[in-house]
Amino acid sequence: MKFWQKNTRHTYWNPYFGGFMLGLLLIATFYITGRGVGATGASKSAVITTVEAVAPTFASGSSFYKKYYDEEKNPMKNWLVFETIGILAGAFLSGALSGRVRFRIQHPPKITPKKRLIIAALGGILFGIGSQIARGCTSGAALSGSSMLSLGGFITMFSIFGTAYLFAYFFRKLWI
Amino acid sequence: MYTGPLTYFDIISTEWNYVIAVLIGIAFGYIMEASGFSSSRKLVGVFYGYDFAVIRVFFTASIVSIIGLLYMSYFGWIDYSVLYVHPTFLYSALFGGIVMGLGFIIGGFCPGTSICAVAIGKIDGWVFTIGLFVGIFIFSYIFPYVGEIFYGGDMGHIQISEYFGISNELFALIFTVLAVIVFYITTLIRRRVKHVRY
């Protein structure tokens, strides 16, 4: 059987190998750019650009948008935006090679697709708010922060995982 | 003497910045997707004991990069003092993490992993990412009222080793030992928890 005929849809890398590769990537990123990676920055740029285009008067009056209004001319011309385009391409490549690319709603058997979408939206909203409060998400604050032993990075890391473990029991019906 | 960070010492000119950004992104996305991070059911497995990929990947990456960067500095390949240390604002780091933790257990993704899910056509990933945009937009409204949390407890670009008054190397050792213990515990738990097919 040729490798592309084999069903690799549920075959993932050994997690320790994946972690090792991710660690090497972080070292390379710091070596080249002096900073780590991120994942929420591009979304923030997109929101800022949209709001500035749709409601410029509102944007110039809000302290949140003002913070970025003066600093940069075009928030989309940003390192993290280009990096995120790369993430999309890289993830697509990996998914395509393993036969995982198709439109679907992944949901646990006890949850309807509609309910899955509602809780996904809710989770996204919470993550959006939280990432802005903490100045970065799991990638930018926790992972890249911990690479350089940032105290805040470690606090955010343990805060994210600690809270999720604490509340896992209450949300168990959503997952198992 | 130092060569790194390459862009800091102008070994790579700034025009290459965006090309490098795309290349690093491709590697980042590939590694996350190949490790199974485009699946919310695999990700939350860590909280119910049926799949510990998140903790294993995350802590391994953390250790490798901490030790690697310290070695790079030790060999004189990288100027450790100019590398970006994520700033510590005590309350925002803690409170933001709590909100994100809730988002994680409810939504099943974090921003990076939801982008991977978007790339391979998971509709729930699309919805999570749209939610992310909405959340950031909501934050722009509440931003003026949370100044105390956002700017409170400012400790600057402090490292955790500095906070505990130990050397970076000692902290790296302690953290590595702790992580190996955690890895071992996850193996024990994994054996006892009923297997979930997804």
Question: Which helices and strands appear, and what pairs or packs with what?
Answer:
The complex is a heterodimer of chains A (176) and B (198).
Chain A: H1 15-33, H2 41-54, H3 56-61, H4 63-69, H5 79-97, H6 113-133, H7 138-147, H8 151-168
Chain B: H1 17-34, H2 40-48, H3 53-74, E1 88-89, H4 90-107, H5 111-119, H6 123-142, H7 147-151, E2 154-156, H8 160-164, H9 168-192
Antiparallel strand pairs in B: 1-2
If you had to describe this structure to a student in words, what would you say it looks like?
The complex is a heterodimer of chains A (about 180) and B (about 200). In chain A, about 55% of the residues are buried. In chain A, α2 packs across α5 (about 80-95) and α7 (about 140-145) packs across α8 (about 150-170). The mean pLDDT of chain A is about 90. Chain A is built from 8 helices and no strands. Helices cover about 65% and strands about 0% of the residues of chain A. Chain A has about 180 residues and is an all-alpha fold. Chain A folds into 2 domains: about 10-100, no CATH class; about 105-175, no CATH class. Chain B has about 200 residues and is mainly alpha-helical. Chain B folds into 2 domains: about 1-85 and about 165-198, no CATH class; about 85-160, no CATH class. Chain B has a two-stranded antiparallel sheet with strand order 1-2. The longest helix of chain B has 25 residues, at about 170-190. Helix content of chain B is about 65%, strand content about 5%. The radius of gyration of chain B is 19 Å and the shape is globular. Chain B has 9 helices and 2 strands; from the N terminus they run αααβααααβαα. Chains A and B meet through α1, α2, α4, α5 and α6 of A and α1, α2, α3, β1 and α4 of B.
